[in-house]
Structures are given as C-alpha cells and as structure tokens.
Give the backbone structure.
Amino acid sequence: MADIFTKEKRSEVMSRIRPKGTKPEMKVFRYLRKERIHFQRHYKRVSGSPDVAVPSKKLAIFIDGDFWHGYRFPDWKHKLPKVYWQDKIEANIKRDRRTLARLRRNGWRVMRVWEHELTEKKKLAAFEKIKNFLLEIED
C-alpha cells in the first residue's frame, strides 16, 4: 500500500490541499500591492501559471512550498514512503524543471521563492529580492 490511507481517503485528503491562496502567496501579494507594483496573480497564459507575473516584461515568480516542491529533497527523502510520497515529490520537481525550461525558451525570466524564505525573520530580504527582480530595468 502507498501509505496509511486508502486510495479514496488519500484522494479526499489531497483534494483539500489548495494550490492557490497559501499564506506565503498572500504575504507576497500584500507586499507587492503595498509597494504599488503592478502584477498578475496565477497568470494562466503561460506554462506553469506563475504565482506572480508581469507579462509586459516577461517576468514570472513561483512561490513554492518547501515540502511540495522538494526543497533540499535529498536530505529528507529517506523519511518518506517511496511508493507514494517520494514519487510524488520527484514528479513535482521534474515538472518544475520542465516549466522553467519552457518559460526560459519563450523569453521569460523566472524567479523561485521558497516558503521558508518568507518566514517572519527572513521575509524582508525576500521581499527586497522580489521587488528588485520585478522593477529591474532592462537595457
């Protein structure tokens, strides 16, 4: 068995996990609005639906959860059941790489912000990094 739940129960549990409206996303959105930086949320016209996008400059930001997107995955993957979770996280990492490559091929500049970078102690540095990325003037 993949994990402690039946297939139906796992499906129910996973259906309650929301890809949008997460606390890290909300922190970034609030900051950008406060700074009066124009952006689009969950921009669906490009691959991967970036959490923050400035289409006119072809800039995209993904706000990734540490667990779901595999931050330092090799360090902790041995703690997960291989049959379900390791495969799931590895598939997410591969999908993220494909999305990044596709966006770059199409001329987009991409930034990834990890959930742990938006903790209370680190968020100011992350916000500054995001602001600089979005307001950077191209030649």
Summary: The chain has a mean pLDDT of 88. The two ends are 55 Å apart (CA to CA).
